[in-house]
Design goal:
The protein is mainly alpha-helical and 137 residues long. The chain contains 8 helices and no strands. The protein has one domain: Homeodomain-like (Arc Repressor Mutant, subunit A, Orthogonal Bundle), CATH 1.10.10. The model has no long low-confidence stretch (mean pLDDT 83).
Length: 137
């Protein structure tokens, strides 16, 4: 009974993380939080391929210190900023893989991950298949 509870809870959390929203928050009811998420998503997507892009850039964009930004994003999404950026990068990479003929290495660089092996490892962890397999689906 207890194992079923934790298994179900893990599914809900996983689903919420996939949408970028923590299940404990009613983000739709709070337009400021929704604007915050949309703002950082837009900023991240604009800077995905920029090798000099760092988390502090996002915090500065939304006018917060790094620590306040970390707490707010973690509270809303359940993810640390670096995890959140990586998640968006991988989602963007999946779209590129579906719609283009770029190599896996090229796609990795396009989304700001300079190590193709690391990219493949992260991609497989998120989607349970390699980028090459994903493309063939």
């Amino acid at each position: 009974e207890l194992q079923k509870y934790f298994r179900d809870r893990a599914k809900v959390t996983s689903s919420a993380r996939a949408t970028g929203i923590n299940e404990n928050k009613d983000i739709a009811a709070n337009s400021k939080d929704l604007e915050f998420i949309q703002s950082i998503n837009s900023f991240i997507e604009k800077h995905l391929g920029n090798k000099d892009f760092v988390i502090e850039d996002i915090a500065n964009e939304v006018g917060m210190s790094r620590s306040v930004f970390f707490k707010k994003l973690k509270g809303l999404t359940g993810l640390a900023p670096i995890e959140y950026v990586r998640d968006i990068s991988l989602q963007h990479a999946a779209e590129i893989l579906e719609k283009s003929d770029y190599t896996v290495k090229e796609v990795a660089f396009m989304v700001g991950i300079n190590d193709a092996k690391y990219f493949s490892k992260c991609f497989k962890k998120k989607y349970n298949i390699t980028p090459s397999e994903y493309r063939l689906q």
